[in-house]
Amino acid sequence: MKKHLFFALIVSLFISSCSSDNGWKSEDYGLIPFLKDNNFLVYVDIKTGEEKGNFTYAGLFREGVALVNDTNGYFYYVDKDVAPVNEERYIAATFFNNGLAWSVKKGAPVVAIEKSGDVAFEFKEAETAYAFNDGAAVFTDENEKFGAVNKKGKIIVEPVWNNAFPMFVNGLLIVQNEEGLYGLINKDGEVLVECQFDCMGIDRSGQNFFMSNYVQALKEDRIPFKKDRSWGITNSKGEYVINPQFDEIVLDGDNYLFLKGKLWGWCDKDGHYIINPQFKSALPFGENEYTVAINDNYEYGYIDKEGKWVINPQFEKALPFNSCGLAVASDKSSDYGLIDKEGKWVVNPQFRYIYDYNLDNKFISIDKSSSNLGIIDKEGKWIVNPDFELFSPTFLDNEYGLEEYNSVKSDYVDVDKLISSIEEGILGLKTSTAGNLITTYSIEEKNFPKYKGNVKIYDKYTVLLSTDIRATDINAWNSESNGWYRYNYTFAPETAVNTYSASFYLNNRAADHIDQVFNIIAEKYNFDIETGTITVPDYEEVKISKGRRSITFYIKTK
């Protein structure tokens, strides 16, 4: 944390204020989690400096409560007195939003909970569930497909999407199909914009633009998209608002900050240039009259909305002006202070770093001598002494709008379902021919080896179970020598098939149940420990073996 991703940070700090729909972003900064003695997190009151609590994880407050993790590794929720809001403890949980949070207990499925700890509904269908927003939550099922559920536990978007952004905004969700292309759906699962774009909203590496290019974009129905390597703007009908022509584009109020080649400029809502691309880097204006820009010498200064320098580039680093009319900047010595809108130092450069999170004229700062963090006022005086090693990473995540604990994973394993899936895999294998395998399993002749061997006829992966079924000891090709040690091969579809291997791999947490699954199958089908066989009706012989996390059947049909 002593090394700072500066530009990504200042972008996230600035654009988070550009939308009235905050998504997951909390603006409750009254209590901030700081690391104390390189050991545990405490909440610090930014007005009084009072320290509260002792946690291994401490989140920001949302809807009056915060998610914390105790020294035993359990998650729970606290109020602003940092007292537990109920007696429930979880192995995983999300923050509250829309009045609900997701939680998971040991060996249990995902459940939606209320602040009282009462269960709103159980959601066994979910493998992963993301925090609620806009009255719905995105989830993935056992096949790692994305869908959505409402606050009553009803699936409103079937899990059919290869990928999706983690939240609904304005009733809209960006999704990705199996071909890797992006489109837009609504809460009824209806496709509003067919999947046709290489990227939409932001790409996954651009999380610092999440608040503007996803939350604000969906709310205002002007959505960045990438097609054929260029970015443009579309609406929720799939109509181009701005044709793809930029190397990057960011919503900035009613206008756009864009990258063309290696230079940044601005265009209006129709794509017409307002400020020609001329800056090495720049930040959105948002609601400010000035913004930060960088010249050819990589010096930071401030420009107006005509692109003219109002504070000449002279700083090593600089942040946007905040609501109190001050901005963080550093001089050539790399020390940080505060400047006014004339570029004059109000607080001389004397700190190793200053963070501006709009804390009511307060700034988290790093003391130059101790490298510890505290809080200063707008005159540079310590109001919370620099006694802390760093603040919780969740604080920076919040500025991106993508809080770290925004999802939970199920800890539930339905053993009966695993066994049913295994039985379904082996009981469907019958005496057949190579030609019938091609028809039944949609495989091709070329998949059959030109010698006696095995051919994969079926495989499937889920989060908890992988299936691999092969026909074994097959020689489905007739060969005829054509001289010079070469052969002509002719496929023989009538080749008989009556031996198979079926391997089932228990993945992730399901692997802990390997003995239980094996023992149930062994008992049900009369396992003979001496021969290693089980008795399956209508099969001549079935051998079974257990690995560390797998069960394999060797089957000979009648």
TrEMBL record:
Organism domain of life: Bacteria
A Pfam family recorded for this sequence: WG_beta_rep
SUPFAM superfamilies in UniProt: Cell wall binding repeat (SSF69360)
UniProt cross-references to InterPro entries, sorted A to Z: WG_beta_rep
Matching PROSITE patterns: PROKAR_LIPOPROTEIN (PS51257)
Protein name: WG repeat-containing protein
Species annotation: Candidatus Caccoplasma merdipullorum
